C-alpha cells in the first residue's frame, strides 16, 4: 500500500488556518451545499448553523445533505446521529458518513481537458478533495481542518405526501454540541423504480479492479460477494448496461487493472476452436441478479492493439495473435467466434439484449467490425461510443457521441422512432462539465439535464470503478486527470460525484414525467435552455438548477 | 543456423595428411570396420581394397558395411552404386549413404563419465566424428580427407538360404575407380519381426524437437508427417515404449526442446478441472500407427521442479503451481487428474498398457507418487528408471536400473515370473560403454549382449532424438558429453551409433532363439562371460563379439 500522501504539498494544506482558529466553541457545525468542493483547511462561510435545511422531494427520490464541521481546537472524537422523521428508516446507511479527502490533480495546463499521459506527478498541482463517502458515524477529528458529513435520504416510494422534520445531532467527545434541523416536504409525485427509469445510464464496470482490491480470486464466490453491493448501487442508479469483454485487453490495458477476455477461447490441437462461456455467463447472471440490465455490451471486435489472446492447446501456452482488419484471418477468427457466441446467447435467451460494442476506431476498422458481425449473424445489435458517422448511423442500435459532438437534425428522433438508443458521453476530453475528482460536484448533476435538453436517452462514462493503485487515498493515475477512471470507491463507498450524478438522473426522470403535459413540456424546455451546449456556464449553474428544481417540485 | 564449425581446432584436423598424400591414384577405396571411428584427416590402414567383405546373416537381419574413400588429390565428385545380389532390393536406401562428420567433445576430465554442465566449450577438446548417415549417393569430395560410405542391407525374412554376391562401385568424376565385392551368406534361421522381438527397447522420443527442426506447428499434419519415418525407424528397431508426458517439463526442461504436457489441463472458473486428451491421443495413435508399442510411458507424477502448469480459465492465463509432495494439494491435484486419466485410458482400451513412469527422485517423492497413483486407481502400472529400491520393487511393473547398479539375486527371475519388465540403462554417467558421439561405435552394439549376459529384458536410453541447436553439425550441448541427447538426426537420418545398437539387439534376439536348446544355452553363457560387468574391456571387445557372432551364425 502506498503511503497516504507522499509529498510536501500536504504540509502546505495543513498549515494553520486563521479563520478556523477564530471560530468559537469546541466544534462548529453548519449545513453546506453539496454542489461545491470545500478546502480542507479553508474556513467555511456557514449559511446558518441554526437554520433548517429544507428539501422538497418526490416519492422515491434520493436526497443529499452536507454538514461541515470545523474547529480551532485540537482533535477529538466527533460523531453524528440522524433523528429521522418517522419510524421507518430513510437514511441510506451505506451512503451516509464522513467525507474523506483524497488526492487529486488538475486539468492539463492549457485548461482544455485532462487527456494524455501524466508519468510525472510533479508536473501537475495536487490537492485534497472531500469526495469519498465513508459510511462511518464517528471519527477522530483532525485539528484545524474542515470535516464534512454526508447524509443520503431515500424517500420511500410509498411515503405519504406531507412535511417531515428531523435533526442531525453532532457530538464532540460524546457530548452533543450542535443540533441541525432539516425538513423534507414530500409531494404527491413518484419517481419510477430504477428498472423503470427512462434514463439510459451506462457506466462501464471493471470486475478485475474489485478482485485486486478485495484480494480475492477472480470469479470466486468471494469476488462476487465483494462486487454485489457495488453493482447493486449501480443498478439503483439506473444502470442499463453490463460491461462484458470478449477479447483480451479490448482497450490495450489502459487501466490499472486491464480487462480480460470473458470468453474462454481454446485453439484445439486439430486447429478447431472451442469456446467456453463460463466466465461470461457467471458475470452476466451476477449482474442481472444485482439488477443491472437489460443490455450486455460486449467489447470489442476491434481491440485497440488488434491482438487476440487465446489458449493454444498444441503448445500448452497463451498465444497473442495480431490480425489486420483486412486480412482473411481476421474474418475467419471473428465470424467463427461470433457465430458460436450468437448460438450461445440464443440458448441463454440473451441474444436480443446483447450488443457488440465498439469504441471510436479508424473507419477501416469499424467497417471491418460491422462486416464480421453481419457475416456472423445479421441480427446482432451493435453499438458505437465515438463520433457521429453518417454512414454507420443506421447500423447502430446504440450510438453514443462525445459531449462536444452533435447529432445532425432529426437523427435522434428517427433513431428513437426505430427503438434505438442515442446518448452522449464525457471522458478525459471535457474540461467542463466532468467528473474528475477536482470537478465541482454540481457538474456531475448536469448530465441528466444536458441529456434532457438535447433530447437524448442518457449518458455514458467509460469508468465506474477502474481503480488506480490506491484508490481510497489517491485518485491520480498515470494517464488523464485524477478521478477519470472511477466514480465509486472500494468497499462499496460512494463518492460525492456519483451521488450528484444521480441527482441529475432524477431531474431527467422528473422531466420525462412532466413532459407528458404539453404546457409543462414547454416550460421545461425554457428552463433547460441554460444547459444548451453554447449557453452552459459554470457561474450561473446553481441558480439555474435551483430554478429547474423549483419547477419540477412544484405541484 | 549456427555456422558449421566455429573454431580453430578444425584447421588442425584439416591439416595436411602425409599418409593420404602418399596414397596412389585419384581415389582410394577400401572396406573398413563399422566398429571404430576414423579420423577425418587420418590416413586409413585399409584391410584390403580388392578383398571381399563377407557377411553371414539370419533371415530378417540387418547388416552394415563401411567403405572408406580417401585421396591425395583435390576434391572432386565421388559416388557409389551398390550392385545387389538379386533382383529384389536388400539395401535400405534411407540408411545408406555417405557418413557425415559432426562435432563432438569428450568425457569429463576425470574420465569418469559425461555428466554435468558444459557452458564453456573451450573447457573440452572437440573433434569431428563420422556419425551421421546421410542417404545420398554422391557428393563433392573434400580433398585430403577420409570420406566413409555406409551401406545397410536388410536381408528379407523370406530370403532363401544360400550365398549371395554383389559389388559396390565407387566413381570419381563419374568414372568407376574401384569395385568392392561383398558376399552375404544367409543361413536357415530367422530373426523375429520387430513386433515379436523379445528385447525391450525403450528410447525416449521427443516430438517437440521434431517440430522445431522441421519448422512445423506442433501436432499438425506436417508435424506427424515429419515424425513418421523417424518413428517407424525406431519401431523397426523394436521400440516398446511410447514416451508420453503428462506434466509440463517433467525433466525441468533439461533438453534443448523441453517436453510439454500432453494432457490439456484447464482449471475452470468454478474451481473444477477439465481435462482434454486430444494431444495425448493423437500422439499415442500416431506412434501406434508407426508400429511403436505396446506400452505408453507417462512422465511424470513427480516432475523435477514439482511445478504444475495449467490453463486457468478465471485469469485467462497459464499458472505454474508448485506443490510439495506431502501437501494435501499434491494428492488432490494428482488423484483427480489420474482418476480422470484412468477413465479415459479405459475408454480407449489402453489402460492395461499404460505405465505411470518415474525417474529416480528422493524417496519421499517416489513414495508420494505411488500413494497418489494407488489412490487414483490401484491397477495402474508403474515404472521406475533409477536405482534399485527393495521396498519399491514389488510395486513396479517396469524397473530399469543404471548400468553400474545390480539387481539382487533372484529379483529378475521373480519379476519375470510375474510378467514384469526388468532392464538397465545408460545415460551421461557411464564412461564406457556408451553412445556419446565420440564413443567407439562398437560400444553401442554391447547393450544387447550385456542385457543377455545379465538375463535382463532390455535396455533404456533417455534420448532418442532430443536434438541440440544444430544437431546435424554439432552434437555438443550445454550439458553432458556430446551425443548424449540423441541417437538419430533430423530428416530421418540415422547414425552409426543407432545402427550398431540394432546389431546388439539382433544378437540378443539370436541368443533368445538359440537358448531354447540347453546345450547351446550353456555355450552362449560361456561366450557372454566377457561381457559381464567386472570383465568387460574395450581392448578385446571386437574379438569377443566376433566369437559370439561366429557361434550365433553357425548352423
UniProtKB/TrEMBL annotation, chains A, B:
The keyword Secreted does not apply. It comes from the Bacteria. Residues 31-171 form the Glycoside hydrolase 123 N-terminal domain. Residues 1-22 form the signal peptide. InterPro entries: GH (IPR017853), GH123_cat (IPR025150), Glyco_hydro_123_N_2 (IPR053850). Residues 204-514 form the Glycoside hydrolase 123 catalytic domain. Keywords: Signal. The keyword Kinase does not apply. This is Uncharacterized protein. It comes from Bacteroides fluxus YIT 12057.
Amino acid at each position: 500500500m502506498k503511503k497516504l500522501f507522499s509529498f510536501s504539498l500536504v504540509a502546505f494544506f495543513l498549515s494553520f488556518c486563521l479563520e478556523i482558529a477564530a471560530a468559537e466553541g469546541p466544534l462548529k457545525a453548519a449545513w453546506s451545499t453539496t454542489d461545491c468542493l470545500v478546502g480542507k483547511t479553508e474556513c467555511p462561510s456557514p449559511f446558518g448553523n441554526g437554520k433548517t435545511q429544507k428539501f422538497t422531494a418526490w416519492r422515491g427520490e434520493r436526497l443529499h445533505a452536507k454538514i461541515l464541521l470545523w474547529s480551532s481546537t485540537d482533535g477529538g472524537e466527533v460523531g453524528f446521529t440522524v433523528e429521522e422523521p418517522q419510524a421507518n428508516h430513510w437514511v441510506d446507511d451505506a451512503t451516509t458518513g464522513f467525507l474523506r479527502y483524497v488526492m487529486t490533480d488538475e486539468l492539463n495546463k492549457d485548461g482544455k481537458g485532462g487527456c494524455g499521459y501524466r508519468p510525472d506527478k510533479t508536473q501537475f498541482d495536487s490537492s485534497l478533495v472531500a469526495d469519498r463517502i465513508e459510511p462511518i458515524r464517528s471519527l477522530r477529528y483532525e485539528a484545524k481542518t474542515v470535516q464534512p458529513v454526508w447524509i443520503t435520504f431515500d424517500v420511500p416510494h410509498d411515503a405519504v405526501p406531507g412535511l417531515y422534520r428531523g435533526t442531525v445531532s453532532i457530538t464532540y467527545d460524546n457530548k452533543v454540541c450542535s443540533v441541525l434541523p432539516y425538513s423534507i416536504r414530500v409531494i404527491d409525485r413518484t419517481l419510477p423504480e430504477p428498472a423503470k427509469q427512462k434514463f439510459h445510464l451506462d457506466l462501464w464496470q471493471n470486475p478485475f479492479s474489485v478482485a485486486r482490491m478485495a484480494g480475492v480470486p477472480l470469479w470466486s464466490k468471494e469476488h462476487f460477494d465483494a462486487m454485489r453491493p457495488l453493482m447493486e448501487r449501480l443498478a439503483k442508479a439506473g444502470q442499463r448496461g453490463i460491461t462484458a469483454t470478449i477479447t483480451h485487453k479490448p482497450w490495450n490495458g489502459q487501466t490499472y487493472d486491464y480487462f480480460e477476455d470473458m470468453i474462454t477461447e481454446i485453439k484445439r490441437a486439430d486447429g478447431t476452436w472451442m469456446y467456453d462461456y463460463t466466465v461470461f455467463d457467471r458475470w452476466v447472471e451476477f449482474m442481472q441478479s444485482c439488477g443491472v440490465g437489460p443490455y450486455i455490451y460486449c467489447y470489442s471486435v476491434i481491440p485497440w492493439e488488434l491482438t487476440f489472446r487465446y489458449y493454444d492447446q498444441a503448445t500448452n501456452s497463451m498465444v497473442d495473435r495480431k490480425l489486420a482488419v483486412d486480412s482473411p484471418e481476421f474474418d475467419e477468427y471473428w465470424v467463427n467466434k461470433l457465430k458460436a457466441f450468437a448460438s450461445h446467447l440464443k440458448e441463454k435467451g440473451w441474444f436480443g439484449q446483447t450488443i457488440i460494442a465498439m469504441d471510436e476506431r479508424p473507419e477501416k476498422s469499424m467497417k471491418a467490425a460491422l462486416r464480421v458481425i453481419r457475416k456472423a449473424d445479421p441480427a446482432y445489435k451493435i453499438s458505437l461510443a465515438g463520433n457521429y458517422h453518417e454512414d454507420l448511423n443506421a447500423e447502430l442500435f446504440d450510438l453514443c457521441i462525445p459531449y462536444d459532438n452533435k447529432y445532425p437534425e432529426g437523427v435522434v428522433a428517427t433513431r428513437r422512432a426505430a427503438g434505438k438508443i442515442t446518448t452522449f458521453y464525457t471522458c478525459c476530453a471535457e474540461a467542463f462539465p466532468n467528473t474528475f475528482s477536482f470537478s465541482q460536484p454540481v457538474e456531475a448533476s448536469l448530465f441528466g439535464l444536458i441529456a434532457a435538453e438535447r433530447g437524448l436517452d442518457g449518458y455514458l462514462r467509460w469508468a465506474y470503478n477502474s481503480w488506480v493503485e490506491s484508490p481510497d487515498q489517491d485518485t491520480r493515475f498515470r494517464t488523464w486527470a485524477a478521478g477519470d477512471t472511477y466514480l465509486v470507491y472500494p468497499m462499496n463507498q460512494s463518492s460525492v460525484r456519483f451521488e450528484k450524478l444521480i441527482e441529475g438522473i432524477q431531474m431527467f426522470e422528473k422531466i420525462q414525467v412532466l413532459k407528458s403535459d404539453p404546457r409543462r413540456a414547454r416550460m421545461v424546455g425554457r428552463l433547460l435552455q441554460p444547459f444548451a451546449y453554447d449557453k452552459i456556464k459554470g457561474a450561473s449553474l446553481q441558480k439555474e438548477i435551483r430554478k429547474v428544481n423549483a419547477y419540477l417540485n412544484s405541484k
